[in-house]
Design goal:
Elements: H1 4-7, H2 11-26, H3 31-42, H4 46-59
Length: 64
C-alpha cells in the first residue's frame, strides 16, 4: 500500500534518493543497510526506497 506522500515524490527527489542509495552502497553499506539508512534520511518507507531503486536501475539514472 502506497502512502500519499510517497506517490507524490517528484522525479528529482526520487533521483536524489537513488543517488544516496548508490553512494551508501559504494561507501561500504550492504544493500539492506543502505535502504534502511536512506529511508530514514529521506523520511520514506523501505518499500518506497526499493521502488525508487528499481526505477533508477530500469532507467539508468546517474550515477549508473
Amino acid at each position: 500500500m502506497m502512502h500519499e506522500a510517497e506517490r507524490s515524490l517528484a522525479e528529482p527527489r526520487r533521483k536524489e534518493i537513488f543517488l544516496a542509495l548508490v553512494e551508501a552502497q559504494d561507501g561500504g553499506a550492504s544493500v539492506a543497510e543502505s535502504r534502511k539508512l536512506v529511508a530514514q534520511q529521506f523520511g520514506v518507507s523501505e518499500p518506497e526506497v526499493r521502488r525508487i531503486e528499481q526505477e533508477g536501475i530500469d532507467h539508468g539514472w546517474p550515477p549508473l
